[in-house]
Amino acid sequence: MKLVVLGSTGYHPNDLRQTACLALPEVGVVLDAGTGMYRLREYLVTPKLDIFLSHAHLDHVCGLTFLYDVFADRVRVPTFVHGEADKLAAIRTHLFSPLIFPVGPPFEFRPLFGPMELTGGGRLTYFPLTHPGGSIGYRLDWPGHSLAYVTDTIASADAPYLEAIRGVDLLLHECNFPDGHKKMADLTGHSHTTPVAELARQANVGRLVLLHLYPLISEHDPIGLDIAQSIFANTEIADDRMEFEF
Fold this sequence. Notes:
Layout: E1 2-7, E2 21-24, E3 29-31, E4 49-52, H1 58-61, H2 67-70, E5 79-83, H3 85-95, E6 108-111, E7 116-118, E8 122-129, E9 135-142, E10 145-150, H4 162-165, E11 170-174, H5 182-188, H6 193-203, E12 208-211, H7 225-231, E13 235-237, E14 243-245
Parallel strand pairs: 3-4, 4-5, 5-6, 10-11, 11-12, 12-13
Antiparallel strand pairs: 1-2, 1-14, 2-3, 7-8, 8-9, 9-10
Helix pairs in contact: 6-7
């Protein structure tokens, strides 16, 4: 199965990266709706689209307003935006306020109420994360394929969500700061390099991909890949438009 990175940074775009947005085109699933959302039009192949939001901070949801362009010049596919009920309510009230965005959303909001079945015999579960305002991580399992998406939280080798991600083939985990910025990471509810790699090793995942990278460093490796690989060898840094098979 293929995963496409549509956006790999956090807070704001830079010259290399758009903000968080990941697509699984074969099954019509998108994880978060950052500024990378406009690229989705190149990958749409399914008759239905499900977008799963980790939380409601602007860098993860502003791309919902781009969906009119995503569907431009094509038949609009039924689209459903899933997330915690209070986050969806905030998006509906504020992001789609007529004073901010004068057209109603081209999708249906669907609050999460438990595990969900996915196209292709898959199953999605979610779990709470520590972040200002609250966030959730996702695990997606198909026969022979599994991934976890964890963003906007504080990683540690014994993180509360350790068992929720254990053994996945592909772990997509935020790494907003390089080592040496622990104080700022803890203050803002984000992760830095060493604890993320230690978590991946402890969870016995197959592969670690680092994303939601610090946007003020506009280079391929803003967080110290060598440090992460010294702890968990099968670690990579996400770049926009990268594709991963898992």
